[in-house]
Design a protein that fits this description.
The complex is a heterodimer. Chain A is of the alpha/beta class. Chain A is built from 16 helices and 16 strands. Chain A has a six-stranded mixed β-sheet, with helices on both faces. Chain A has a five-stranded antiparallel β-sheet with strand order 1-3-14-11-12, with helices on one face. The longest helix of chain A is centred in the last third of the chain and has 25 residues. Chain B is mainly β. In chain B, 0% of the residues lie in helices and 35% in strands. Chain B is built from no helices and 13 strands. In chain B, the strands form three sheets. In chain B, strands 4-3-13-12-9-10 form a six-stranded antiparallel β-sheet, with no helix packed on it. Chain B is globular and about 50 Å long. The relative contact order of chain B is 0.17. The chains are: A alpha/beta, B mainly beta. Chains A and B meet through strand 3, helix 12 and helix 13 of A and strand 10 of B.
């Protein structure tokens, strides 16, 4: 009977492994499995059989011909036994063929993670904590709308959902204690009686919020913090990042909302990135309730959490850059080839663009990337599901003129390029390189106009003028451009022709 | 290595968009070293040519040309082989910052596009500077600016 494990698994190498890596792995394994050594170490069970199996795997994989044939068999096997998974991963490469050159070339790989569930079951049970900044600057319309937003959440709760509310300024205090089937009237009264005062100490709010969430979190609940702030926090930034890391490791998601011009967008974005969370800018209090409605709808649409993509590259490829491009554009964190992606929703795929530098060594097809997407399903089982896909490149001795880059990739790249120009302009403005930043902002405005983003283009031009006059970007303009360019992918060709 | 034609940044082969200026990088590995390259002959259009007129805001000066493939706008300079279809020398082109090979009008079907040819002082449409080598669709009545020369287009 043939072994259930693939030759790659037997040797403990990824399917993209080079011959060199396979030889190394084999030598290591042979040392432990050689009949003589095994006998000495007291491993007697099936040693000969295992040794033969390993030998067969090795001989197949180091022979290019035989390896190709074996790979084909594996693929066929995978198609036959394909399970019905909750989500799928598909990799699309910008260049299936590359001319063999003696310098690194750039290719783009679009990774798309999508729900495969046709019939949505009940929405996940929520364990929500709303963390409200009640500092003095919130007084007036901001506070009024923040309370309205809180009331909205209270009204949306189903009987088994949990909602807690924390108000923080220099210190934090629970206003609504999370409990199943809480009394809505009491919850609203408690929120209504709050008055703004004091300063903004973000860490106080974050920690109190996480404590509430931890009390109720379970494998069956979607544990999530929604934080609203309008002010700068001072001195506790490192603590906030550590708290965000802790939340990520406990699979607690974060939605970080900044209201008005005077809050630290770098900190909030960084906190969100640690766990694949969401952060955004709200320019006027009147938009608060709408943002809460949208976010709530997204949270109730979640299919899996703690999503991540693991990218294994073969030795000819190197990861240059990775961006999430939908639902919105953001730089993602890559640690040991693992990219945290947060929540996957039913109707909004997660798409990443990977930029790879590839140096071909020999003619012929090469598997350069093996990617695995995994996440914890929120169907009550708490099980982790994982799917994978691969990208190959065929190196040819002359350029293939008939290859064209898929339109969806090209369109996304155009939008991403504009986002990157924005990043550069912001960095230059911060470093005091005003002339370069101004030129870049003007250039940015032209691109934005081409995408029909008239408001955003105007903001970029205004900031170019502001920079020339005052030597600084305005707090508001900077945020408007930063968060506006993130949404550029929402009108991408890919989203429009999606069913 | 390939070079971005609009900002000069260097990228690995096959890069599609320039990170520095956001422009689409044209044909892979085609490096522009000649400052005044010969233009490829324009493809013949399927239907009849479009009549283009460019006039100064005071309507004193007016250029009328047939656009069938493309029209080069610039300053005549036989020494460097610049023979523009629309020669702005008679509008004090040099003083007004017009490059020898400043921009070109391109016909695509019934659309008219304007492409800046990496001119020194820039080409503007409705007040926005074009990114070099990024043709833009223009409309009848648009105000085009080459350096400091302003011309209204009609067709």
């Amino acid at each position: 009977m043939p072994s259930q494990r693939t030759y790659y698994e037997l040797l403990g190498v990824p399917p993209t492994a080079s011959t060199e890596e396979i030889k190394r792995a084999y030598r290591q394994l042979v040392k432990t499995l050689h009949p003589d050594v095994a006998k000495r170490d007291g491993i007697v069970e099936n040693v000969t059989a295992r040794f033969q199996e390993l030998q067969q795997a090795y001989e197949t994989l180091i022979d290019t011909r035989r390896r190709q044939f074996y790979d084909m068999q594996l693929d066929a096997e995978r198609v036959r036994t394909m399970r019905r998974t909750a989500f799928t991963l598909r990799l699309t490469s910008s260049h299936p063929h590359l001319q063999l050159l003696n310098e690194p070339q750039l290719i783009y790989v679009l990774a798309e993670i999508k729900s495969a569930i046709l019939q949505k079951s009940a929405r996940p049970t929520l364990n929500l904590c709303l963390v409200l900044d009640r500092s003095l600057s919130m007084d007036g319309a901001r506070w009024q709308q923040a309370k309205e937003a809180a009331f909205y959440l209270v009204d949306q709760l189903q009987s088994n959902d949990i909602l807690s509310v924390i108000a923080f300024s220099d210190r934090a205090r629970p206003v609504v204690r999370g409990q199943v089937g809480a009394d809505r009237t009491v919850a609203k009264t408690n929120v209504r009686n709050l008055q703004p005062n004091g300063g903004t100490e973000l860490l106080q709010g974050v920690n109190a919020g996480l404590d509430e969430l931890r009390k109720w979190r379970s494998a069956n609940t979607l544990d999530h913090m929604i934080l609203l702030t309008d002010g700068q926090t001072y001195g506790d930034e490192d603590g906030c990042l550590a708290a965000a890391d802790a939340a990520a490791s406990e699979k607690i998601g974060m939605t970080l909302l900044g209201l008005g011009a005077d809050w630290n967008e770098k900190l909030l974005d960084e906190m969100a990135a640690r766990g694949g969370g969401f952060s955004t800018f709200i320019d006027a209090p009147s938009k608060l309730v709408t943002v809460f409605k949208e976010r709530f709808a997204e949270l109730t649409n979640v299919l899996a959490r703690d999503m991540q993509l693991i990218a294994h590259l073969n030795e000819q490829a190197q990861l240059k850059d990775v961006f999430r491009v939908t639902p919105d554009i953001a730089r993602v964190q890559v640690k040991d080839n693992v990219i945290p992606l947060g929540l996957l929703e039913h109707d909004r795929p997660i798409r990443l663009l990977l930029e790879l530098l590839v140096t071909g060594k020999t003619l012929g097809a090469q598997r350069i990337l093996h990617a695995e997407a995994s996440g914890e399903l929120l169907n009550g089982s708490g099980e982790r599901e994982s799917v994978s896909d691969e990208t190959s490149i065929e190196f040819t001795d002359s350029a293939r003129l008939d290859d064209s880059v898929p339109h969806a990739i090209e369109d996304l790249l155009a939008r991403l390029a504009v986002f990157k120009v924005q990043e550069k302009a912001m960095a230059e403005a911060e470093r005091g390189e005003h002339v370069r930043a101004t030129t870049r902002l003007q250039n940015l405005a032209t691109h934005l106009l081409n995408f029909g983003e008239i408001e955003l283009a105007r903001a970029a031009l205004l900031e170019a003028g502001e920079l020339t006059r005052t030597g600084h970007l305005s707090d508001e303009g900077r945020k408007r451009i930063r968060y506006g360019t993130r949404r550029l992918s929402q009108n991408a060709a890919l989203n429009q022709d999606a069913p | 290595m390939i070079r971005c034609r609009s900002c000069g940044a260097i990228h690995p082969p096959n890069t599609l968009f320039c990170d520095e200026c956001g422009s689409r990088l044209s044909e892979a590995r085609q490096v522009d070293t000649d400052p005044l390259p010969d233009e490829p002959p324009a493809a013949p259009a399927a239907s009849s040519p479009i009549t283009i007129s460019l006039s100064t805001p005071d309507s004193v000066k007016r250029y009328e040309r047939m656009l069938d493939g493309e029209l080069l706008i610039g300053r005549l300079d036989p020494a460097t082989g610049a023979h523009p279809d629309i020669d702005l020398s008679d509008m004090q082109g040099q003083l007004q910052g017009v490059s020898r090979r400043h921009a070109r009008l391109i016909r695509r079907g019934q659309q008219v596009l304007l492409e800046d040819l990496h001119s020194l002082n820039g080409t503007f449409v409705r007040g926005m500077r074009l990114i070099a080598h990024n043709p833009q669709v223009i409309q009848p009545g648009d105000e085009l600016q080459f350096g400091r020369v302003i011309l209204k287009i009609d067709y």
